[in-house]
Amino acid sequence: MASGMARFDGIDAMDSVVLHHAPTVLIESSEDYRLVGSYDDARYVCWIESRKLWRIAGPIAFNILCNYGMNSFTSIFVGHIGDLELSATAISLNVISNFSFGFLLGMGSALETLCGQAYGAGQLNMLGVYMQRSWIILLGTCVILLPLYIYATPILELLGQEPKIANMAGKFSIQIIPQMFSLAINFPTQKFLQAQSRVGILAWIGFGALLAHVGLLVLFIKVFDWGIAGAAVAYDVSAWGISIAQVVYILGWCSECWKGFSWLAFRDLWDFMKLSLASAIMLCLEIWYFMTIIVLTGHLDDPIIAVGSLSICMNLNGWEGMLFIGINAAVSVRVSNELGLGHPRAAKYSVIVTVVESLCIGLCFAALILATKDYFAIIFTDSKEMQEAVSNLAFLLCITMVLNSVQPVISGVAVGGGWQALVAYINLFCYYVVGLPFGFLLGYKTSLGVEGIWIGMICGTFLQTIILLFIVYKTNWNKEVEETTERMRRWMGKDAVPSNPT
What we know:
There is one protein chain. The chain has 502 residues and is mainly α. It has helices at residues 9-12, 39-79, 83-108, 110-120, 125-150, 152-158, 163-175, 177-195, 200-223, 228-253, 269-297, 303-341, 344-371, 384-392, 394-417, 420-445, 450-473, 477-492. The chain has one domain (35-492).
């Protein structure tokens, strides 16, 4: 390490830093916290970190909920066409679309690490370059993923889906190909804006897109009577509306970090690709894990009811999950910004506050599901048999919601700290060596069926959450600051050091 970075005097002298007793401006404090030594200090840190977290997480979560609402309203409108249409659309959205969604979101998540730490270190000019590199890589990835959509029908049949479900799902998958390409623009622009905490505009764009999507669904399905083809067209138009609106905002209102198109975007693509792939593998192993439960359920008796009821539960789980993905993005911004600034304790305390608050929210969601377990399926289907099947799965849905309140937060910490490769190995073991085989055993070798598959998956998620919590607990945050500085040097040159090392 360069001599100028051999010691972090601000870290060594951390205990001498005075704890402020007035709210600080978001990501503008020039000093780190000292060790919390009293209840008043803990209460103050909790208050400050909560404000910082929710000023970022609130708009991000609202935007993601609006985006996910497009999926849910699509399922709601299609579900009232018929059970077959609901199952086919659910398979397409939860298997084919989620596969590409997870991979593209993971590839784009490299920007959370690089843009967040660069913004904290004051290297504003690099944010636009990173975003353009991500556009290039994600557009190329979309081309590679095209066969998944084009050959969705034989792929689903190979996975054991009923032919009539697979055929209809395959047609729907081809019709939503434009939506996949919109994600290659959408995700990098989101991460670019999130790193700067420009999240209010994301919320407004997401809300406008949701309203437009509902209007298009009414027009194409109810008025024009296009069936699920109308749902696909509405999905495509709404998705591209989001991407275009975000790009227009960046071009017009982000002059500090957007310096125009640059040939620098084509440099170091392979190094950027490696970090993107690590992020993608980490996230995909999570998203595909829950996608797999839909595929396995398709092999059970009466697959239309099994897949349909499970898809309704996964839809509600997704609503809660989208909220915590918003918190995931916020804690990633907080951790990466504070590490870029050279503030190890601020990074640590933001993690603690976020985990505790997220767990409380997850428990509230679980209680709400238990209270309404016999009624919420009415929103999605008129079938009494489907409603009863959903009610039987409600308890497992509650457990999943509690686990999902913590797990995405820890993943956000991993992205903010640049630990993607480590988490990918943990996910691989917990999900695919433990959870998936156990779920298969319970689902197919006992009479539990879909409940058994889900129980096994919950066990894998629980193990992964415990391991990640232990890793975060043992993390040396001073060392993380040093590694962040070295990462900035590698990516942006020898003069790229934290702008406020204290």
